[in-house]
Amino acid sequence: MLGQGDFVFIAAKGSHVSAPCLYIDLYRVEGGKIAERWGFPEELPPHEEWKNDNGIL
């Protein structure tokens, strides 16, 4: 999680329909509440296909 100014960025690993998934979310906060949200789920390939050790493509 990373925040600066009115924006908060979150990256997390989880699953979707039993498949490993990476979730990227960006929030814009206004007046102490979420005003906008952008979400980008990305299915993770099998571990042997990873190009690095963190699983992010």
Describe this structure in words.
The protein is an all-beta fold and 57 residues long. The protein has one domain (2-44). Helices cover 0% and strands 63% of the residues. The protein is built from no helices and four strands. It has strands spanning 2-4, 7-16, 19-30, 33-43. β2 (7-16) and β3 form a beta hairpin. The two termini are 18 Å apart. The model has no long low-confidence stretch (mean pLDDT 88).
How would you summarize this macromolecular structure in one to three sentences?
The chain is mainly β and 57 residues long. It has strands at residues 2-4, 7-16, 19-30, 33-43.
Indicate the topology.
Elements: E1 2-4, E2 7-16, E3 19-30, E4 33-43
Can you count the beta strands?
A: 4
Overall, the morphology is elongated
In total, how many domains does the architecture comprise?
1
Q: Roughly how many Å apart are the termini?
A: 18 Å
Q: Fraction of residues in helices?
A: under 10%
**How are the strands of the largest sheet arranged?**
1-2-3-4
| Radius of gyration, CA atoms, in whole angstroms | 14 Å
- Mean pLDDT equals 88
Largest sheet properties: 4 strands, antiparallel
Order of helices and strands: EEEE
| Low-pLDDT windows of residues | none
Strand content: over 45%
Q: Counting H and I runs of at least 4 residues, what is the number of helices?
A: 0
Class by SSE composition: mainly beta
